[in-house]
Each structure stands twice: as structure tokens, then as C-alpha cells.
């Protein structure tokens, strides 16, 4: 390095000669003063931006290192998301009380121009500041107009770094949430998800709605009791609060479940519900807003119409978003099936990422819900597209989204911690906070217990009381609640909601998250159950069995006892969707009626016709449509081989999940081989 | 899907009963009108944001698909970056002339409050709009203050989507550039880079400075000839233009070179120069700005002092940034060497990414140059940290940055295209544009030819004239020039620079990029040279030889003819840096003097002491310090094995670059094995 710097010095010494000539030219420099000052100002703002990002990067590094220490020492009393929150709180407090930077931001109070006839009920989006003529003050800018963008309401003088340590809520919705939600869909263990489809939908769709209304009603009743609150909260406000506090967060619980190998069906219920109820909550809160707008514009007219419109919104937005997500997933599958883009894994991965992200954006741009769309897009990508990808892209996309998800979720929890202190729009109202905690608990109970009772009437493997307690307990609040709460913080009511939501998130994540292991043992939940192995596992058979007879407190599930919904869909999927969208067999030539043969021939690739039986079964997930005998047959079709060379020992474990980047023969099964040197 | 929607409908039907009760409560709703309207407004803005992002995502998808078609059909007349620019131009034109959306953004002209005593020479950063009292207009907001952030100067009424299809230049600097630059460092082929270190530093440091001053002086002379320009441009302005138009872009040329397997030394010269001159240009332009500020504040005092301060800035900022980058790289190496974070590849990858990004931010926050820091951080990460990573993380980080780089570079070129039409601050001045093109060419020539002449005086394998022509021709302008130009667009002069820079970038990328193949054959540059294989390749030997005798028009390089700088550094690196930062041998116990043995013992890991010879040589790059005999010995140490089972044929290619995600035995060499079914 020293050498390089020397080089630089020597090099530039030569320029000096040349440049000294220029100095004479520079003497004639003048004007452009504003430019230079603006440069300096831009530089200062850029520095603050960097400092701001650096703060969070530093927090994340700290979190990563501490998580590692915890994992290394097998400590489980605090989870990584809890850690991120706590570090965030500490740093937030330091920023709040430690720094008293002299503000370098220039403020100017302004009033509307006399000529303006502004009579909207909302503040304008942009201000145009016409700079005045020179009043003899020296170097005031003359005759220029500058644009200013709306930032928010002001209550008191804000510390500069405070303003800077916060992000636009747009960043959460457009940048941070999509990878988290997509990853949830992409990594969903679909076999168990579909097996418990009925219960998951019940909890997520009906349960979340019940919870939102119960919380909304209880909060409204409570607010009426307190004089200073009753003025600022309408029922719509409390209902909105109910909708935003209802979704549960999968992150913390699920990663503990993963570590402990908790019973797969409980895993599926908790994960499936919390993934879907994020989607439900966001649609629900949107519908409530729409209801508010209609109600407003109708000015007290016929509210029932507005209500049913809102209900229609809910159903329409949810199903349209789902449709967009699934469609985009299928389009990606078709693109990867019928082009040879897999020859260029980088392009393929880029296409995959871009198509998935555009799903989110298309839904958002059409006033639908990107979260729902990207969730179902993720499920479709995993179910269909994944099978068409080259081995390189499979691994790359999985690893990419895993990493993005990790960074995004830890960022959001750090941010929740920091913003508790730095976000200028908190409104602490002890009464509202207390009521919020109580109602959140009651709302969760109103979701889990009655619905479990109803489900148990029809469901064969009943959900035992201990499982119900665990479901109740798994109701941590997380990123989605926070993101919804921080979206609009203009009024007092909204600010009190944000504060309460932040506190609920922080406390549930730290305490409920930390106590999960303890609760699992109190409720006698089976842990250490053989994990479901993705793709084709060698102990797949064993895990499959243990799940069936050990975990749920009922007799084993026979194939015909699988959820009706799952069976119908599974059949349709195997016969039509998979042959159309992937290289799987049976092909459409075999499943479609004879009249459609020409069409089927177009939609069937050569690869699909000629490929080997063993290969085509190497699916992304050991799907719900696979039966035991298939698993067994597949496992026995290639035997593990052992052999040795004079100085080497090889063990070959056949494995159909290609992990290699060598894409020259992407269709051939790969074997990963550990080479033990003696 | 149909089934799920049905489920949703059935589920929600139950809520209806419950909710009808609530309707009565809702009748009492009132107020909170502003909240709801603000919600609606936030939603609209969010939709526009999404639309905006969608636009670019769509452009990238289009580019990916077209690139694939081109690669598939082996078309080379247009390169992917060229494609991205062209698509960008088309979409930009459509947005500009196709849409005439009625603006839904609310503007309000404002004037400073009477009480304000604002006498700065720059516009304020924030405006505080005190909303007036109710003047009887109905539902005007009462008694609220809103904050507005500075956006820029306004010339004419802007179309809404226009404003929206542009991004803050902060996004380029904080989000888009870092992965591109880091990837350049991380994927640098260090062997050839160090072998040509002298020439690369000469072109990048001295050449870029010469080019900037030549362009600056010529442009100033030209501007003086045109009356309407001479008023708005100072010499400092034209010098700044020289600095921002001097850096060349590696992307387009390099990916063509990659496709064609162009001679590795030419590759190293072009790539090394263009990577470093980005760094030089950004520091140079910063120094020019600083000079301007000092010159300004001194108000015509002693400019020579300001000049030498600026020169000191240049050297100081460059070397400090380099130091920060290298230090952070080394810290990451130490972290990964002395902790067992590699047991958790996800954490390890996250740590790697976060440390690398924080390097950029630390440099930016300390008023240094993040680009320089992140570049050298990338080089150190590849040189040291990479060797400590688990196989999973190696692959993950490589693939991640490859993908990020691909997306970022295509995004930036799309954006250059779109912004040509939509960015509101273009200033087309045909004279300035023409002069810009001419001076850019002359500046490049003033860099390449004189310096090549000087280099050839001392250099043993001379750089032939054809190579010089190719170097001249490889001077496409790209992302860095554009990013620097768009950073400040307040004055007319800056806007004219932006327009000229955009045009130069667009035209050089499309035409020079497209004609590269043609030029390579005109200049008789050897193509189809055996590619350097990363890590340890089986034909590494052959490529090494062919490079030595075939490509450069001189006799082969003997070991002692390697650059002196490279030899000194290589020796130091092998003896001290690598043993300290990685698990390589010889260990510090062997290289440090005896008095330091206790220290050396602490810094040497057990793994380092006990590991196998073959493993420790499995370095990330076949480094400049490796000699031929090493390569040969390594290649012969494990023999390929062939054997077969009744129905299977195996060929095992020993390979020390682990590709597997199986991290259970990360220290053991892996073998990837193609399994041919018979």
C-alpha cells in the first residue's frame, strides 16, 4: 500500500508542472458561488445520509456477531430479532440523549403567496419558493424558484440526526417487505402447508378478521371511557388499529422452531397462519381506509353500502392480488421452461428476481396488495419455476433470498428499536398503551380458541389444547404491524397507535420470543422431531412416518383423510399445471383429452418427453402429491457407493438436488462426494 | 386458487353477522377527515413510486430477455449495456411525449414569512409552512405546521411522471455504485493486475489527471469563443467537466473481452485502468470542488495555497480511502479467521456483505471517497477473507455480487437512457456538446499515447501501437461520469455538462461498445486466448504459457522481470500478510523473527498448523506469487479417478474450489462428480 501511495505522489508531481500554468487561468474565476455552496451543502447532506446508513449497518454487524456468539454457546434466552431490537433501543437512546449537535440545517418559515387560492383540506405536495429580489443584503439568490417536497407535520424543533435516523415508510413497503414476504413463500414447506390448508385459512382469514374487529370494538369501548382520548379516536381509527395489530410475525418463532425441530404440523400451522395473516391484515386495513373515504365522501349517507363496498374490496383485492402473484409466477415458469435462458445462469437468476419483484410492483401500482401478490408468486416460483432453473440459479436464488430476508428482517427490528427514540412522531399515552396490550391479547385469544373449537368439530387429527395454547402464545407482533403503523403518522390518534404498536412489537419479540423454548416444554410440544428435508432426503421416509404417528395427538393420517381441498388441487396440479409449467411427467399429451393433442404437443418440450424417470422426480419439494412408495422407490433407485483409492476414501451419497455450479450438463444428476484423506 | 377464494368468501360471510353490529357504532364516526385524505394521498404517491420502480424493472426484464436472445443467436453488434440504454431512450421518449397525465400534485407558491431574516446565499434546506387560520373556506387545515424538503430549482411546469421517473442522485452513490465497484475489486484477476501494476497506475493516476486537465483547458478555451457560454462557465467548471468525463467504463468492453477471451494482459490493462480511474476521477472532482470552496472563501486571495491544498486533498483522500478500504478488508479477514462464524454460512455471508458496505459508508461519512475504499476493500476481501470463508459463503458472496453488479449496471444504463428525456434539468447546447465530444477524444489520446511512449522506454514487454489504439478505443464513458454529472444540476453550466455527459455516455456505449469486436480484428489483437481460470484450473499451465509467449509482442517474461513493485509486495504478502489474515502457510511462526514468537503463536490458528499442504494452496486466485512449478506440483498431487458401477459411470475431477453447500466438513477438499447414467 505504501508503495502505491508513493506511486501516486510521484505521478502527481508531474501534473504540478502542467497545472501551475492553469493557476493563472484560475485567477479569472468568479461567480458560480451558489453552485459551489450547493455542492458543499449536497456533500454535507450526503455525509449525513451515509452516517445514517452506517448506523444501521453497524447495528446489523453487531447483531450478526452477537447472534453468532449466542449460537456458538447455544444460548436461547434471547433471539436474534430480540437482539436487533435491543441494540436498536440502546443506539436510539444514545442518539436521543447523547448527541446535541448544533443544527446545520437551514430552516425558513414561509406563508402562502397572496395570489394563491389554495382551498384543499390537505397540505400541498410541493411548495414553490420564489426567492425574493435582492434587498441589498449582498449575495442573496436572485429571481430563482425552488421546489420543496412535503415531509410531514412539525411539532417541535427536531434534532438534525433524529430526522436523519428515520426512513421514509415507502422504503419499508417497496424495499424491505417484498424480500421478506417473498422468502416466506419461496421457502414454505408446501407439503405440510397444504395438508393443513383448511386450518391455516381459517385462522388467517377468519381469525385475523375476528381479531381485528374484537380489538377494534374493545379499544373503542375503552377509549370512550377516557375523556381526552374519546375526542381524537373514531371507531374507524380503533378498527384500523385492530387490523394493524392483528397480524402475527413468523420470524422469531419460526427460527426457534427450526432450531428445535418442532413438530412439523405445528410449524406449518404457525408459519402458514402468520404468513397469510400479514396478507390479510394489509388488505383489511386497506379496506377500512377505503370505507373511511367512501363514508367521508358520502357525508353520512348510506353507510351499509360503504360497508359492503369495503367488504367487496377485501375479497376483490385479496383474490386479484393472489391472481396476479400466481400469474406472474406461472409466466416466469413458462419463460424458463420454453427458452434456453438456463444456459446463462446469471441472466436466469436476474430474470427470476426481476419477475418476482415486478409482481410486487404491478400489484401495488394497480392499487392491489403487493404483499399478497409476492407471497403467492413466491409459492408458485418454488412450486413450478424452481424445477426449470439451472442448478446454479436454484442455489443462487435460494441463497440470495435467504440473505436478503435475514438482512431485511434484522434491519426492520433494529429500526423499530432506534425509532422508538428518534422518530419524532411518537405520542405516549399510557392509557392507550395499556389498553392496546390487553386488547391484543384478547384479540389473539378470540382468534385461536373459538376457531380451534370449530375446526376440531370437523378435523380428524384434532388440535389439542396444548397446541392451541402454543398457537395463542406464538402471536408475536412484528414487521407488518410496524410498517402499517408508521405509514401515516399525521394525527395524534395515529401517533398513539404507532407508539403502542412499537411497544407491543418490542415487548412481544423480546419476551415472548425469548420464552418460546420454555413454553414449548411447558406445553409438552414434541421437539427434536426429524426435520423435513427439502428435496429428496435420505431419512425422508423416517421423518414422514414420525410426523404421521408421533406428533399430532390422534391416529395417523391415512391418504384419504388429507384435506379435501388439498386433494382436489393436488390432482389438478399433477395432471395439468406441472406438465404445463415444468418439465415434469406425465406430460400434457397423457393427461389432456385426445382433442387437445395438437396443443399438448406444442406445450410439451423434448426434454420432457425424453428425460429419465429418476430425474423428473427430483422435484423441488417432496410434494403433498407424492406417496410413500414413490419415496421408497426413488431412494432405492441409486445406491450409495463406497470405494477407495490407495490414499483416499470416497463415500458417494447420491443426491438429486444439484449443488454444483457446473452447468454444462444441467440435466444429469449430480453427486456430492466427501473426500477423506488418510 | 378458485378453491381458496371460495374459502375466503365463506369465511368472511361469517364476519358479516358480527360486523353488522358494528355498523351502528360507525354511524357515530366523524372527524379525522384530514387523516383519511392524507391516507389517500399517501396511497397515490405510493402508487406513483411503484409505477416508477416498475418501469425500470420492466426495462431490466426486457434487457435480460433481449440479451439472452442475442447471446443465444451469437449476435455481437450490440452489447447489453447498449441495449439497456436504447430501451431506456425508447421508454423515456414514450413517457415524455406519450403521456399527458393531468397533474394530481398540488402546488402552492409561497413567500418567506415577514418575520424571517434569511440572508444565506443558498436556498434553505427545509421550509416550514404555517397553515393559515380558517378563512371560512370550509375544511381548511387549521393551525398546523408542515415541513418541506429542498428538491431543486424549477424552470417550467414539470409533468408529474417526469418528476417521478427520476431518482435522487444519492441513490446512485449510496446504493447503485457500491456493489458495482466492490464487484470490480472482488472479481479482479489479481495475477495479471499486479504483473501490469506500473502501467495501470500510470494510466489511471497520471493519465486520468492529464486527461482531466487537457479536457478542462480545451473546453475553457472553446467556451471563451462562444459569447453566450463564456458567461456561465468558469475554468473551474470546465475542469470539473474534465474530471468527470475522464474516467472510462469497464463494463461493456470487459464483458466483450470475456466473451472473446481476449489476451489477458490487454484485459488487465483495460480493466485495471478503468477500475482505478473511476476512483481517481471521483477524488479529483472532489478536490476541484474543495479548491473552489477555498478559493471562494479566500475571496481572491492566494490561490496557490488553495491549489496545493487541493493537491494535498487529492493525495490525502486517495490514500486515506485506500487505507480504510484495506483495513476493513483485513478486519473482515481477521474476524473470519479467528471466529468460527463459518459454521453458520448465512451469518458469515451477512457479515461479509455488511462489513464491505460499511467500508463504503465509513469512508463517505468521514468525507473521504467510498468508491476508492470499497474498491480496495473488494481486492482485500478477495485476496484474504475469501480464503477463510466457508465454501457456501464463497459461492454465495460471489454469486450475490455478480447478480447485484449485473442488475445495478443495467439499471444505471437504463436510467441514463430514460433520464435523457424525463430528467427536467437538461440543457442542450449544441456547441458545448460538440466541444465535449471532441475534447473527450483528445483527452483520451493525451492519456494513452504519451504515457505508453514513456512506459515503453522502461517496460520490457512493450505495449505495441495496436494495443495503444485499442486502449484509446476502450475509453467508453459510463456510470461514474453520469453519476458525477447528475449530482449537482442547479446551474445552467452544470446542466449543460449533464446533457453532454449523458450523450457521450450513450453514444460511446452504443457505438464504441458495438464496434469492439470489429476493432479487435482490425488491430490484430489476439482473441480466443485460453482464459485464465479462477482458482486452480487444469489448463492453468497452458494458459499461463500461451499468455507469456503469444500475446505481448516481446519475448516471454522471466520471473525476475516482473514489476519490482509487484515482487516486493508479493514477498511481503506471502511472508506476513497472508499468514496473519488467512489460514495459509508458511505461518507467522516461520516468517517472523524469533523475538516475536509469542505474538506469532497467538496469531496462528490450529487449523493453520495442522492443515494439509494441498489444501492450503487452494487459494482464491492463482496468485502472482505462485510459480509454475507450484502449479504443476499441485495439479499432480491428486489424480483424477475413473471407475464404474454396473449401471453408472463416474468421472471424478479433483477440484479444490469447493462448490458444495454441504458445510459439515468445510476443511476437506471436495470433489464434484458427474454421474453419467448408461
From TrEMBL, chains A, B:
It is a multi-pass membrane protein. Residues 62-522 form the Cation/H+ exchanger transmembrane domain. The chain crosses the membrane at residues 50-70, 82-99, 171-188, 200-223, 314-334, 369-389, 401-421, 433-458, 496-515. Keywords: Antiport, Cell membrane, Endosome, Ion transport, Membrane, Sodium, Sodium transport, Transmembrane, Transmembrane helix, Transport. GO terms for molecular function: potassium:proton antiporter activity; sodium:proton antiporter activity. GO terms for biological process: regulation of intracellular pH; sodium ion import across plasma membrane. It is found in: Cell membrane; Recycling endosome membrane. One of its GO terms (cellular component) is plasma membrane. Belongs to the monovalent cation:proton antiporter 1 (CPA1) transporter (TC 2.A.36) family. This is Sodium/hydrogen exchanger. It comes from Apis mellifera (Honeybee). The gene is LOC552330.
Amino acid at each position: 500500500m505504501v508503495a502505491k501511495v508513493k506511486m501516486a505522489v510521484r505521478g502527481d508531481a508531474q501534473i504540478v508542472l502542467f497545472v501551475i500554468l492553469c493557476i493563472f487561468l484560475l485567477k479569472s474565476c468568479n461567480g458560480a458561488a451558489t453552485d459551489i455552496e450547493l455542492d458543499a451543502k449536497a456533500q454535507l447532506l450526503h455525509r449525513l445520509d451515509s452516517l445514517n446508513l452506517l448506523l444501521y449497518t453497524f447495528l446489523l454487524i453487531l447483531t450478526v456477531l452477537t447472534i453468532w456468539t449466542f449460537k456458538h454457546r447455544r444460548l436461547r434466552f434471547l433471539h436474534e430479532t430480540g437482539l436487533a431490537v435491543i441494540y436498536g433501543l440502546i443506539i436510539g437512546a444514545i442518539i436521543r440523549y447523547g448527541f446535541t449537535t448544533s443544527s446545520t440545517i437551514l430552516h425558513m418559515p414561509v406563508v402562502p403567496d397572496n395570489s394563491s387560492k389554495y382551498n384543499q383540506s390537505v397540505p400541498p405536495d410541493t411548495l414553490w419558493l420564489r426567492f425574493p429580489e435582492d434587498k441589498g443584503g449582498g449575495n442573496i439568490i436572485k429571481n430563482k424558484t425552488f421546489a420543496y417536497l412535503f415531509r410531514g407535520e412539525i411539532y417541535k424543533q427536531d434534532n438534525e440526526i433524529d430526522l436523519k435516523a428515520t426512513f421514509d415508510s415507502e422504503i419499508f413497503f417497496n424495499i424491505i417487505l417484498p424480500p421478506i414476504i417473498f422468502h416466506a413463500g419461496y421457502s414454505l414447506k408446501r407439503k405440510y402447508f397444504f395438508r393443513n390448508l383448511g386450518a391455516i385459512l381459517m385462522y388467517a382469514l377468519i381469525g385475523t378478521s375476528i381479531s381485528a374487529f374484537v380489538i377494534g370494538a374493545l379499544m373503542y369501548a375503552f377509549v370512550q371511557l377516557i375523556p381526552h382520548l374519546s375526542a381524537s379516536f373514531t371507531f374507524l381509527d380503533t378498527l384500523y388499529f385492530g387490523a394493524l395489530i392483528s397480524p402475527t410475525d413468523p420470524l422469531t418463532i419460526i427460527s426457534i422452531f427450526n432450531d428445535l425441530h418442532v413438530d412439523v404440523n405445528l410449524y406449518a400451522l404457525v408459519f402458514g397462519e402468520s404468513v397469510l395473516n400479514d396478507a390479510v391484515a394489509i388488505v383489511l386495513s386497506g379496506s377500512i381506509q377505503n370505507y373511511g373515504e367512501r363514508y367521508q365522501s358520502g357525508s353520512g349517507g348510506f353507510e351499509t353500502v360503504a360497508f359492503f363496498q369495503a367488504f367487496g374490496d377485501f375479497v376483490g383485492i385479496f383474490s386479484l392480488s393472489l391472481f396476479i402473484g400466481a400469474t406472474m409466477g406461472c409466466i416466469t415458469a413458462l419463460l424458463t421452461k420454453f427458452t434456453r435462458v438456463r444456459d446463462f445462469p446469471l441472466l436466469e437468476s436476474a430474470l427470476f428476481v426481476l419477475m418476482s419483484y415486478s409482481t410486487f410492483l404491478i400489484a401495488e401500482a394497480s392499487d392491489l396488495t403487493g404483499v399478497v401478490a409476492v407471497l403467492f408468486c413466491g409459492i408458485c416460483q418454488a412450486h413450478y419455476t424452481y424445477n426449470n432453473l439451472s442448478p446454479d440459479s436454484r442455489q443462487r436464488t435460494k441463497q440470495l433470498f435467504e440473505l436478503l430476508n435475514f438482512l431485511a428482517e434484522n434491519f426492520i427490528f433494529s429500526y423499530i428499536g432506534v425509532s422508538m427514540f428518534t422518530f419524532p412522531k411518537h405520542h405516549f399515552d399510557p392509557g392507550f398503551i395499556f389498553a392496546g396490550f390487553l386488547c391484543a391479547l384478547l384479540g389473539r385469544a378470540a382468534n385461536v380458541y373459538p376457531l380451534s373449537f370449530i375446526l376440531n368439530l370437523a378435523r380428524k387429527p384434532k388440535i389439542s389444547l396444548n397446541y392451541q395454547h402454543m398457537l395463542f402464545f406464538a402471536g408475536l407482533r412484528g414487521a407488518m404491524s410496524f410498517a402499517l403503523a408508521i405509514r401515516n403518522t399525521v394525527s395524534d390518534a395515529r401517533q398513539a397507535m404507532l407508539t403502542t404498536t412499537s411497544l407491543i412489537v418490542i415487548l412481544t419479540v423480546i419476551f415472548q420470543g425469548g420464552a418460546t423454548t420454555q413454553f414449548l416444554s411447558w406445553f409438552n410440544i414434541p421437539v427434536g422431531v426429524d426435520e423435513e428435508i427439502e428435496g429428496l432426503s435420505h431419512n425422508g421416509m423416517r421423518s414422514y412416518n414420525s410426523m404421521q404417528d408421533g406428533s399430532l395427538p390422534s391416529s395417523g393420517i391415512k391418504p384419504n383423510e388429507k384435506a379435501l381441498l388439498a386433494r382436489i388441487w393436488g390432482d389438478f396440479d399433477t395432471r395439468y399445471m406441472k406438465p404445463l409449467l415444468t418439465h415434469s411427467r406425465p406430460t400434457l399429451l397423457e393427461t389432456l383429452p385426445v382433442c387437445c393433442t395438437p396443443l399438448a404437443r406444442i406445450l410439451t418440450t423434448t426434454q420432457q418427453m425424453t428425460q429419465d424417470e429418476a430425474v423428473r422426480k427430483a422435484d423441488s419439494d417432496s410434494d403433498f402429491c407424492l406417496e410413500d412408495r414413490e419415496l421408497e422407490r426413488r431412494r432405492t433407485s441409486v445406491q450409495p457407493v463406497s470405494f477407495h483409492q490407495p490414499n483416499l476414501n470416497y463415500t458417494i451419497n447420491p443426491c438429486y438436488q444439484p449443488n454444483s455450479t457446473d452447468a454444462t450438463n444441467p440435466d444429469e444428476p449430480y453427486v456430492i462426494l466427501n473426500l477423506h484423506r488418510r
